[in-house]
Amino acid sequence: MEQYRTPIALDQVRITDELYGPMLRLVAERVLPYQWEALNDRVPGTEKSHCLDNFRVAAGDLPGRHQGAIFQDTDLYKWLEAVAYCIANGTGKHLLPLAQEAAVLIARAQEPDGYLNTYITIECPEKRWSNLAEGHELYGAGHLIEAAVAYYRATGEKLLLDTAQRFADLIDRTFGAEDGKCHGYPGHQEIELALVKLYRATGEKRYLHLADYFIRQRGQKPNYLLAEMAGRKGRNVFPEFCEYDDKYAQTHLSPLEQTTAEGHAVRAVYMYSAMADLALELGDPEMARAAETLYNNIVQRRMYITGGIGSSGKLERFTADFDLPNDRMYCESCASIGLMMFAQRMAALTGEARYYDTVELALSNTVLAGISREGDRYFYVNPLEVWPDNCLPSTSMSHVKPVRQRGAPVHRPHRRRRAAVSDRRHLRHDHQRRLEHRHLPGRSP
Amino acid sequence: MEQYRTPIALDQVRITDELYGPMLRLVAERVLPYQWEALNDRVPGTEKSHCLDNFRVAAGDLPGRHQGAIFQDTDLYKWLEAVAYCIANGTGKHLLPLAQEAAVLIARAQEPDGYLNTYITIECPEKRWSNLAEGHELYGAGHLIEAAVAYYRATGEKLLLDTAQRFADLIDRTFGAEDGKCHGYPGHQEIELALVKLYRATGEKRYLHLADYFIRQRGQKPNYLLAEMAGRKGRNVFPEFCEYDDKYAQTHLSPLEQTTAEGHAVRAVYMYSAMADLALELGDPEMARAAETLYNNIVQRRMYITGGIGSSGKLERFTADFDLPNDRMYCESCASIGLMMFAQRMAALTGEARYYDTVELALSNTVLAGISREGDRYFYVNPLEVWPDNCLPSTSMSHVKPVRQRGAPVHRPHRRRRAAVSDRRHLRHDHQRRLEHRHLPGRSP
User: For B113-170, how does the pLDDT look when each residue is reduced to its tens digit (9 = 90+)?
Assistant: First the structure.
């Protein structure tokens, strides 16, 4: 196991590349302010987000019901994380007042015991943790933690970090292998990698061990998520979950025993990222081997030449080795972002530069191509071949769009946060040497 | 408009072809007796049908709840129709006692006012006709009528015909353009062509006019089915109906104005078949032109070289002109059966032999290939290209099976009834001349 490596702090790097430099400024100057308006339902002619209003209702500032998706809170968290990176990279100082307003509102929507999810708080407080497979409570907690850590690192401001920690502590008291705790784990992985970040920001080892519990509990028999789904007798939040199976959320085996990339691609690469993080932080060779095996399966057998992953339009998932159709694949931008995250962590774990070939592949071809130069239109699905006339709604090709769309808000901040963060990852230190994984013109100390 | 043509009665035709002759005997001697056992839940190791038991519960013979699909009744109707054709073609006399038992049971499950649907009768009698988009009540009525007419023609037995007529009369009193009647129409077309058969068997013109109403009411604004779906706010019986649109059930325009084959392929060709029937029976040139236009769109632009139709795996539907992928299409056997039915009726309407090229194409390639020589395994989906390793559950290729399956009971009798009926359609009379659309060795008067 190689030694721990500290990435160069974001505020120490400046990207001067002619393509990515202007994109980063575009994010800070146009995209994030526009998204703030959208999250506040102040953009005429677009579908309402309800995101900020949900927090206001949960905080008691507004009357009303929860509106929008059950994971709508994460739009604000992703936006805040992107803002934090822009503040750190020097492009986003002007966003500080908005970010501070958001952080205060989030803190006020938190319940006294630390719980934070506006859907549950407003609509059904008695149903906490009762639908882990679909409920996104732990997924939301993960994005809150990521935002809080990024914001703390960018500004030194602790309010959001305190909020995130209080929620993380509640989760730590609620979930675990011990008797009396819930033996569940997230239906959508995300919190695992966030908890590693929270450990790094706070030094509190319990977050690392909670992440490790979530990984190691996954795939144990009896299958927690399948049992929960069976109890709902098909009354699912997401209609497409009528085809839910144990591979979908990577619960078919212990992650340590998994050798092929399976199921929902975003869930998968988020989990693999956390596994690489945990292998590094805990010095766990078994976890490192599992992550390496999964990485190799992806890049050697289940990844497109564009860095796209996820061959199935249905359920946005991996399929089989070398099943890489040109036209009907999903290959969502978010999955390639997750693949970049995974590859970056494998590079940190091993010190090997080759993982950055995958980062570059996915960034240059799929992630970058997913966004228009103006920053306001998106490809969510990234096929190699498109017949525009055949991309019809309510058919097996309905996920494929021949032109970039005004995307669902949930994904916009996500891609923004990646665009904003990507500069940091290209330079890393370790104790002995300086590792340069740089593909872009820029400067650092 | 050409004059009315009478098909040669089934009992006047004997198929001596070396391929189809033995298949017809196989249906009568092995398949239909086996299916009777399956419908009675007496086949060990297979999923229970519950079909006969549902009728027994509705008739008061058994306690209990409805089980199985909401359209489970139609399995028995399709089985009875196939039995009737086998009796007529001389292969199925031994099935008469079983058929008579089924007919008596069906009659006893009928409600006093003529209503007949075991799911509604057992589970929610107050919800009659409240979910036309999904409920299959009219679809079930159609299959009951088809079975009753076939059984009457094969045996002269009127019990089932009386049952069907009482239900048809209730439907006639319930639905129509007049004030005070429900202005709805079937979510799954089938009853339209069945009502034409009922008219032919009984001479009662009101059935013809009810079929004509169902066709002409379809696609009128406001859209009846979409309004009904909206009122359910996503609480659908079928999860995949979250992507329901007006083309799915051919309600986007009046059928008379439709020029392209759209939506769910089976629904479409059943409706087009009824349109051809009505054009003939009512001497309606507008209806004839619409049917001809839709037929040409299919065979010139939306049909595979195998006679398969329905390019979209999602929602089993038509897509766009010349969108004919080799691997991911649906092309369900039932849709090609429906296409045969449509083409046969176009031949009857016009007297032109060319429509039988399509019948032969679909029969020889898709319908026939859908059944194993032993008669016990089925392809439901009929692609041109299959990569077995990629046909994974819960993916966009999950509908494709690399080997024939033990199919869902709903579709087995369906294919049996086509195999049993196909011989009749190869010979037709009209008043002036004898039309031979014969591709098979056989004899007739």
Answer: 999 999 999 999 999 999 999 979 999 999 999 999 999 999 999 999 999 999 999 9
Partner residue facing A239 (CB), from B242, B315, B325: B242
**Other C-beta atoms within 10 Å of B7: how many?**
16
d(C-alpha B126, C-alpha B228), whole Å: 16
Interface of B with A in 318-347 (CB under 8 A): 319-321, 323, 325, 327-328
Peptide bond into A222 cis (omega under 30): yes
Contact assignment for B328 to A396 by CB distance below 8 Å:
yes
Domains annotated for chain A, with CATH where assigned, are 10-443 (1.50.10)
pLDDT, averaged per 10 consecutive residues of chain B (445 residues), comes to 65 88 91 93 90 98 96 96 95 97 98 98 96 94 98 96 98 98 98 98 98 98 95 84 94 98 98 98 98 98 98 96 96 96 96 95 93 85 96 95 72 52 42 56 70
ipTM: 0.86
Mean pLDDT of A360-379: 89
b/e per residue, A328-349, with b = 16+ CB within 10 A? bbbbbbbbbbbbbbbbbbbbbb
Could you give the CA distance from residue B245 to residue B252 in angstroms, rounded to a whole number? 8
The Cα–Cα gap between B323 and B330 comes to: 12
Q: What is the pTM of this model?
A: 0.90
The closest of A436, A445, A422, A427 to A23, measured between CA atoms, is A422
- SS3 string of B84-124? HHHHHCCCCHHHHHHHHHHHHHHHHHCCCCCCCCHHHHHHC
Query: Chain B contact for A180, CB < 8 A?
Result: no
